Amino acid sequence: MASPITIITLIFLFLFLLYSAEAKRTYIVRVKHSDKPESFSTHHDWYTSQLQSISTDPQSQSQSESESPLLYTYTTSFNGFSAFLDTDEAESLLRSESILDVFEDPVYTLDTTRTPEFLGLNSEFGVASGYSGHASNGVIIGVLDTGVWPESKSYDDYGMPEIPSKWKGECESGPDFDSKLCNKKLVGARSFSKGFQMSSGGGFSTKRESVSPRDVDGHGTHTSSTAAGSAVTNASFLGYAAGTARGMATGARVATYKVCWSSGCFGSDILAAMDRAILDGVDVLSLSLGGGSAPYYRDTIAIGSFSAMEKGVFVSCSAGNSGPTRSSVANVAPWVMTVGAGTLDRDFPAYANLGNGKRLVGVSLYSGEGMGTKPLELVYNKGNSSSSNLCLPASLDPTTVRGKIVVCDRGVNARVEKGAVVRDAGGLGMIMANTAASGEELVADSHLLPAIAVGKKTGDLLREYIKSDSNPTALLVFKGTVLDVQPSPVVAAFSSRGPNTVTPEILKPDVIGPGVNILAGWSDAIGPTGLDKDSRRTQFNIMSGTSMSCPHISGLAGLLKAAHPEWSPSAIKSALMTTAYNLDNTNSPLRDAADNSLSNPHAHGSGHVDPQKALSPGLVYDISTEEYIRFLCSLDYTVDHIVAIVKRPSVNCSKKFSNPGQLNYPSFSVLFGGKRVVRYTREVTNVGAPNSVYKVVVNGAPSVGISVKPSKLSFRSVGEKKRYTVTFVSKKGVSLTNKAEFGSITWSNPQHQVRSPVAFSWNRF
After folding, report:
1. Which residue in the list 33, 77, 145, 608 is annotated as catalytic?
2. Where are the stretches annotated Disordered (predicted)?
3. Phi and psi dihedrals of 657, rounded to 5?
């Protein structure tokens, strides 16, 4: 037994160590990078010497590297270091002319990469509805994309149960892909390239590409890990968006089908993959790809997804990135969930401090060496051609832009390519300024040189400053990651818009989800910009597009499938649509990033998804295969056209709808044409509690009268169905050529708000 003296000694030693630990803390020190004396070969040596000179510890001169207070030496976008110091040492450093700032290391709670939290997918998700997250272990999400990087931590299967017995898929081998790379998370990986190879003459246009499921593009790894990636702690993109990266349905399985290659995604390959995926046993199909609009019988995705829907597979597709152009939405088949994009409450601010004292606000994901503190000259539209304002390849004159910051107009070529063009011409920085086409939307990029993106109004101020000032200058400053941005969500300007040109009577897009600056897994075969000259490698990347919003909804559909295995794809779709919200985090109506105006259902559909409410929607609008056939018959397609979609020997159109809008869709799109009155009937199914009563609330449009009969629906049992009829009357004297108006119809009780947006148009677009 220890003596009392020994115990007292140990107590004093413990208190001394505790005091010492409390007296010292981590500080971050920003340094004048150029002040390094020539006597030091590296900044690391210089920083070590500085710390030894101000140390209050007499043993500091003999400290080993592991004992040094120097923690990190920063040589990229931040010039300086971090160190473990006491207050006196920190104050001593600050008195040095080479030290610009000293501040305590801020403490953050590393939670998520934001989208799960933003969508309410926390540990309490589904508790009120009795949903267990483990239920999603039986759900398999198939992703048609550019393949998969199986070594990514997003496919870690630690703790996952055995693969469901229903799964019939496989993991294919290839020149660069071992079938053993699949596991209980990544349950399948296939590639489909015959259509591509035929189109390209049988060869591959890049050395990285081969016939295998391996992702050498990054897009497929990003989308599949967004849908159902495992939780990965301490994830970030070069320090940005730090947290725990996780998919929407972390317990679900992933099966990837590589259908996209260097020259595109071919319809023949897509159809083959969808066929295989259905046979393999997927529950959800996610397709972050599209190619404009076409009649359904010419739309390979529409055709393939019809078969999937018939087999009980939910299909989610991206709406396209052609916004804010009107009528640009793609993947509009009513049996497909069409997903637009919105912003998160997270941003990556960066600034341009101009020589006239003004500070322009923008965004950036630049992570390389900073610009220092000296402003540089600004140039705009100085080059070898009329396209120099766009910074197209070979458009800049190196003698004019070398050593300067170049302003580039957004548009035509890729945003990251503009930065590469500026760098190759000798420019030291870039400000990419939006034009009217992109409005005020800001998308952050990981450029190869210091660069920020600014909106149209800011861009106009910048162009005028360069034009009017004899010596325009700027200094670019990067500020990392900020959260709780207001307002959010905002509809992304690039998100494709309605109305639906294939079937104007079906409102598209259906919903919006997170699609701007999304962090997810990435391929190790390519840099984050996707440019060949980008030698950087990262486990995660931040991307924007409806390609990113689509897998969010695919993952959420997987959660609903697990919670309600008896629900059809149309019931799941209805739940996501009728519970979507239309107010941002300032409790104001959703806005449009294109011009900061109020958004409308042609941009956001039913609204932004709310998975918590979708678990218990109260009522759903269900649609059978036969009803979809009646819908197709109402389009005046030939029997052969319809047979091509439904894949039956023949179809009977004797019971076709009088109007395509009669389909039991969760939203309304009313095309008056030459009529003044349009009447639709809908049927809702009670998936809530028995003995439920709902009353209707109508939000009309200025030029349309709306009446609903009956105005009250009473349900005695779960699964009971009730019908109601809506009459829309265009008011006399209304002449609204090419104009749209909007309203809503909501069935309400104290527990549920089952909302359907209504879009009105008077002419076919």
Report:
1. 145
2. 198-227, 592-611
3. -65, 150
- Going from the C-alpha of 334 to that of each of 316, 422, 656, the distances in angstroms are 11, 45, 16
Q: Return the higher-pLDDT residue of 60 and 491.
A: 491
Average pLDDT, the chain: 86
- Does 562 score more than 90 pLDDT? yes
Q: What residue ranges do the domains of the chain occupy?
A: 115-344+489-615, 349-478, 624-657, 664-761
Distance in angstroms (rounded) separating the CA atoms of residues 140 and 257: 13
- Pull the structure tokens for residue 324: 């804010």
Q: Which residue has the tokens 């018939």?
A: 310
Spot the catalytic one: 33, 43, 219, 552: 219
Please list, in sequence order, all residues whose beta carbon lies within 8 angstroms of the beta carbon of residue 666, skipping any fewer than 6 positions away: 573, 574, 577, 578, 606, 620, 621, 756
Q: How far apart are CA 405 and CA 421, in angstroms?
A: 12
Phi-psi region of 151 (alpha: psi -120 to 50; beta: other; left: phi over 0): alpha
**Whose structure tokens read 């349009």?**
678
Q: Does domain 664-761 have CATH number 2.60.40.2310?
A: yes
pLDDT given for residue 638 in this prediction: 87
Beta bridge partners of 453: 363, 432
Q: Is 17 left (phi over 0), alpha (psi -120 to 50) or beta?
A: alpha
The answer regarding whether domain 115-344+489-615 maps to CATH 3.40.50.200 reads yes
- Domain 349-478 listed as CATH 3.50.30.30: yes
Please, where are the H alpha helices in 501-615?
Answer: 546-563, 569-578, 601-604, 611-614
For the chain, first and last CA: distance in Å? 91
Mean pLDDT of 548-568: 95
- Map residue 75 onto helix, strand or coil: strand
Distance of CA 636 to the CA centre of its chain: 37
Rounded Cα distance between 94 and 82, Å, is: 13
**Distance (Å, rounded) from C-alpha 664 to C-alpha 683?**
7
189-216 tens-digit pLDDT = 999 887 787 666 666 655 677 889 999 9
Task: Give, as one character, the DSSP assignment of residue 283.
Answer: S
Residues 6+ apart with CB under 8 A from 466: 378, 379, 380, 407, 472
**Would you call 459 helix, strand, or coil by DSSP?**
helix
Please list, in sequence order, all residues whose beta carbon lies within 8 angstroms of the beta carbon of residue 335, skipping any fewer than 6 positions away.
302, 305, 306, 309, 315, 569, 570, 623, 628
H helices present in 121-266, as ranges:
194-199, 219-228
Q: With the CA atoms of 125, 129, 131 and 136 taken in that order, what torsion angle do they form, in degrees rounded to the nearest 10?
A: -80
- pTM score: 0.81
Write down the residue that tokens 């919003």 correspond to. 549
Per-residue pLDDT reduced to its tens digit, 331-369: 999 999 999 999 999 889 999 999 999 999 999 999 888
Distance of CA 249 to the CA centre of its chain: 15
Residues 6+ apart with CB under 8 A from 613: 579
Chain segment 141-198, per-residue pLDDT in tens: 999 999 999 999 999 999 999 999 999 999 999 999 999 999 999 999 999 887 787 6
The Cα 101–Cα 91 span in angstroms is 10
Name residue 101's beta-bridge partners. Answer: 30
In the block, residue with structure tokens 């593009």: 217
Count other Cβ atoms within 10 Å, centred on residue 625: 15
Q: Rounded to whole angstroms, how far apart are CA atoms 290 and 467?
A: 41
DSSP letters spanning 315-334: EEEE--S-TTSTT------T
Active site residue 145: yes
Catalytic residue selected from 328, 544, 547, 692: 547
Task: Assess contact for 560 and 249: CB atoms under 8 A.
Answer: no
Report the candidate in 736, 728, 726 with the shortest Cα–Cα distance to residue 762.
736
